[in-house]
Amino acid sequence: MKNVNKGLGLVVLLGLSAALTGCGEGSDELDEQLSHDAKMSFVNSLDYMADFHAKKRSISSGYSGLFDSGSVVSADVPAMEVGKTYSYNYKAINNMINLGVKDSNSGEKQDRMNTTLKDGANLWVIAWESSGDRALSVISKKQENKADVFNVRLFANGSYDVMVGEDKVTTTEKGQVTGYYSVSSCAEGLKVGGNAIDLCNGDFGKSYLLVVDANGKRVMAAE
User: Fold this and answer.
1) Which of 140, 159, 188 lies at the terminal end of a domain, its last residue?
2) Which PROSITE patterns match (predicted)?
3) Are 40 and 127 part of one and the same domain?
């Protein structure tokens, strides 16, 4: 009788183990089907009006269909301006996305990239150029407002010394974004590569992303 009870106990334990394993697999499958979202704002620092495209990426299809008309998410963004914000919903398992930009008028000058999204991401998608080479970059938005100053960070297409007041605070790196710097004067408080950066269209107490090149400011975008 004791052997029978032991046998029954073993069966029960094995059954519970199988049930728990099954629940774990189901949970993973459920997680993959959860709906996630991300927001993207498009920055056109190019010299021409541009269309921005976005399309779910799969390993098998690559960039196929990225520049179809149905994938345009921010159209006719003027040169050196910020386009609209696009809200993208996706299943957790489909967190890879293709991004592209092209000349709005000719449909040419196509550039593309892909990235992996995180749930709740709020992103800048920046189209930029350096010495004739065009590129797309993705960085997270990062608001850091400070009272009575312009709080700015810079995305540059090259290496330029950055001066705040009389002090050199950093040297930019090509295709990278700096940390934040507080600027107290809107007209002469910030210089990049020896060029004064006019911040007077902004507001004190707010934070901004500046896209810059060798000639100074190209785009000023409120974070």
Assistant:
1) 140
2) PROKAR_LIPOPROTEIN
3) yes
| pLDDT tens profile 184-209 | 999 999 999 999 999 999 999 999 99
Q: Are residues 109 and 157 in the same domain?
A: no
By CB neighbour count within 10 A (0-12 exposed, 13-18 middle, 19+ buried), where does 17 fall? exposed
Q: CA-CA distances (angstroms) from residue 1 to 8, 98, 216?
A: 11, 66, 89
**Do residues 189 and 150 lie in contact, with contact meaning Cβ atoms separated by under 8 Å?**
yes
151 pLDDT more than 60: yes
Please tell me the total count of domains within the chain: 2
Looking at the structure, tell me whether residues 134 and 42 fall in a common domain.
yes
Question: Domain limits at 187?
Answer: 150-222
| Sequence-ordered strand ranges (E) for the chain | 35-44, 50-56, 72-77, 81-91, 96-103, 111-116, 121-130, 133-140, 150-156, 161-164, 167-171, 181-183, 190-192, 195-196, 207-213, 216-222
Q: The whole model's pTM is what?
A: 0.85
* Last residue of one domain, picked from the residues 97, 112, 140: 140
Q: Are strands 161-164 and 167-171 parallel, antiparallel or unpaired?
A: antiparallel
Question: Residue 161 domain-assigned?
Answer: yes
Give the pair of three-digit tokens for residue 45. 């620092």
What distance in Å separates the CA atoms of residue 79 and residue 93, rounded to the nearest whole number? Answer: 35
